């Protein structure tokens, strides 16, 4: 009995000790929890302060950014105002100088001063960016030995440009074109890209409007006009005193021109490559450029003035719909970026690879005033091969059985246009006789003279089944389209 009491006493004492230890551990845990709670509160408070400070820093940065943007805007406005004041001051200086000439009107003074210095004229048209080209001589066209030469680049001719002229340092840009024409299609395009998808007619309209505006503003003399360069003026300016394939030598250098090897067939901002010796940019690439002349397949064709050996101020103008484009494009191979390279298109054709640059020169007098006249698509041209009694020709919709092609001879794709990936279409009105032969034809629509020539070479070889009217074979007229490339 006594032993059991002693054992219980021992067990009770042991349990008490364990209880004391547990209570002590509990108090320590409660203390640790309080410490953690305090630490968490301090951490939360610190994070909150940091967030407040960061928000404050962001607000300060935003205010500084807004302040800088406002300052930049004010500086831009100030810069524009100063430029305007500078231009006005230069204009006043020019006007004052003109008054110093006793007995001469300001316009006479300006015109006479052009013979010695062109600074005054160029300063008046500074926003356009033009360079004065003095008169001179050069060899136009390419030699038979020049790599990539086409037959219509000759014969080589010694050309004299008897009067100086100002020419655009750059191709006309989207920005300048839109400012003058106010045509919305170009507003959303990159402003410093050369304008493209403009026809020869569009370029003529631009030049006429710019001339009118600058005459009203008295920026140019009344006997000066903006226009497209003649083909001779363009090549004279492109060569810049050289007689090599390019204005920088006989070997192509990417530093001077955008082409298929560095442009990716995409137009680039003007002035990004090196200029030629006379300070003109992109003469060998980027976009090909409309010139004033009608197309001719030989330099002998200049109305007798453009002989095989020499010519003075040659320009070839008639009422044909075909005009010339010079220079290469960002999609052209280097061989087709040469100084003598030339292509032709109908005056109303718009191409993504074709733009223009302008010249300012004395008014160009021509016999038929086509230098500044728009050219409509030809309604009647000289492509008729033979004549036929019209009374015997029946319209296609009146026959009982239409003719169908039995022999098709596709026209050959002109190599130059194929290499430059030029697409096009020719519509030919053909007369099919009673036996199904092509008795007559007329080019009704064509996007390029070389496409027309390709069709002319094969159209007579086509053969059709006879058209039938009231059980009899009859002559019939129909329009046959020819496509070059995917449309």
Structure characterization notes:
This protein has eight helices and 18 strands. A hairpin with a 2-residue loop joins strand 17 and strand 18 (472-484). The protein is elongated, with a radius of gyration of 40 Å. The strands form five sheets. Strands 12, 14, 15, 17 and 18 form a five-stranded mixed beta sheet that branches. The protein has a four-stranded antiparallel beta sheet with strand order 1-4-11-5. The protein has 487 residues and is an alpha+beta fold.
Count helical runs: 8
Number of domains: 3
The structural class is alpha+beta
Secondary structure: number of strands = 18
Main sheet characteristics: 5 strands, mixed
Mean pLDDT: 79
Annotated CATH homologous superfamily of the largest domain: paralog of FGE (formylglycine-generating enzyme)
Order of helices and strands: HHHEEEEHHEHEEEEEEEEHEEHEEE
* Radius of gyration using CA atoms only: 40 Å
Which second-level CATH architecture of the largest domain applies? Alpha-Beta Complex
Helical residues, percent: 25-40%
The first-to-last residue Cα distance is 120 Å
Contiguous uncertain segments of 5+ residues = 97-116, 303-307, 367-388
What top-tier CATH class of the largest domain fits best?
Alpha Beta
